[in-house]
Amino acid sequence: MIIHIVITPDDNVIDSTFVLLNSLRKTNPDSKFKIHLIHCDLNNKNLARILAFAKKLKLNIRDYFIAPERLNDIRGKMNSDKVTRITASTLIRCVITETLPKSLKRIIY
C-alpha cells in the first residue's frame, strides 16, 4: 500500500520540511510513500534541495506548481479584511483536491 502525503512548504520552512521527510523515512523504513509537494512561492534552489533530499531518502516525490494568480482568485472570493494575512501555503489547501489525481482516495496532510 502506498501512503500519499501532501506537503505545502515555502521558503520559510525548508529546514522543517527536511525534518519532516527524514522523520517520515526513519520512523517508517519499510513503508511506501508518495509525497505530493504543492507549492506557489518556493524558489528553484529550495525546490531542487527538497527533491534531492527526498531522492536520497528514497522517497517518491512529485511537485505541483500553483500559479499565484490562482491563489489570488481564492483570496478575492473570501469575505474578510484579514485575508491578506493568509499565507500561500494555507491557501493551497483550498486547491488540493483539484490539483492531485482524481484517483486518490486518501491523503495525509
Task: Please tell me about this protein's structure.
- This protein is of the alpha/beta class.
- The chain is built from 5 helices and 3 strands.
- A 3-stranded parallel sheet has the order 1-2-3.
- Helix 1 runs parallel beside helix 2 (44-56).
Oligomer: single chain
The mean pLDDT is: 91
Number of strands: 3
Radius of gyration: 15 Å
CATH topology group: Transcription Regulator spoIIAA
Shape: globular
Major β-sheet, in short? 3 strands, parallel
Adjacency order of strands in the biggest sheet: 1-2-3
How much strand?
A: 15-25%
Structural class: alpha/beta
What is the succession of H and E elements? EHEHEHHH
Distance from first to last alpha carbon: 17 Å
The share of residues in helices is 40-55%
Total number of domains: 1
CATH classification class? Alpha Beta
Keyword list:
single chain; 109 residues; alpha/beta; Transcription Regulator spoIIAA; three-stranded parallel sheet; 5 helices; 42% helix; 18% strand
List the helices and strands and how they pair.
Elements (H helix, E strand, L loop, with lengths): L1 E6 L6 H14 L4 E8 L4 H13 L3 E6 L2 H10 L10 H5 L3 H4 L10
Parallel strand pairs: 1-2, 2-3
Helix pairs in contact: 1-2
Quick take:
By secondary structure, the chain is an alpha/beta fold.
